[in-house]
Specification:
The protein contains nine helices and five strands. With 202 residues, it is of the alpha/beta class.
């Protein structure tokens, strides 16, 4: 099994790379999807979030209002740390469970936004960073996620700096170009990951 950490700043297009790797045959474990799963209605995770942040983080239907909670924690590092302490252990446990179900020889891609911030780079065989300049991140967040420029800047500044992410990269995917160019790079990436996985079997 080859354990790959896939990361990138918000708006860099990590999910596009993740989808393409899954289509090639990678076992993709999406930390964001699992983070939603562990605070779904009726879970102990959601109960702990409510205890920490109050019922005002819930929507009218009783589910977590992620946008409201996000606005609260992205403005305050201490609150963000409190939220992470609730969610991250649950996400890590679930990701490990999924990984252990993968077939021998698989390329297992851990799609994790905060590899750099949480010092996780050394826990993977290789780290792939999806990279774009900060101005493109900003444009994409404003255009596609309906954020104001100030909201987008706050989300970007809450993550590691671009240079910090690139410092842990084994492979960099430049996603500032077209989708056709991204397809080409992901095809090359998949071939490289398969080579690494096959070398581990020898």
């Amino acid at each position: 099994m080859l354990r790959v950490g896939l990361t990138g700043g918000i708006g860099a297009g990590k999910s596009e790379v993740s989808r393409r790797l899954a289509a090639q045959g990678a076992v993709v474990i999406d930390a964001d999807a699992i983070a939603r799963e562990v605070v779904a209605q009726g879970t102990p995770g959601l109960a702990e979030v409510i205890a920490a942040f109050g019922p005002e983080v819930l929507g009218p239907d009783g589910s977590l209002d992620r946008a409201r909670l996000g606005d609260t924690v992205f403005a305050d590092a201490d609150l963000r740390a409190r939220l992470n302490a609730i969610i991250h252990p649950r996400v890590a446990a679930r990701m490990l469970e999924i990984e252990q179900q993968a077939a021998p020889g698989s390329v297992v891609v851990h799609d994790v936004p905060l590899i750099t911030e949480n010092g996780l780079a050394d826990s993977y065989d290789i780290v792939v960073v999806v990279d774009v300049p900060p101005r493109i991140q900003l444009e994409r967040l404003v255009r596609h996620r309906v954020m104001t420029r100030d909201q987008a800047k706050a989300r970007i500044s809450a993550q590691a700096a671009r240079e910090q992410r690139l410092a842990v990269a084994g492979i960099v995917i430049d996603n500032a170009g077209s989708l056709a160019e991204l397809d080409r790079q992901v095809g090359e990436l998949w071939a490289e990951l398969r080579r690494h996985a096959n070398a581990r079997k020898e």
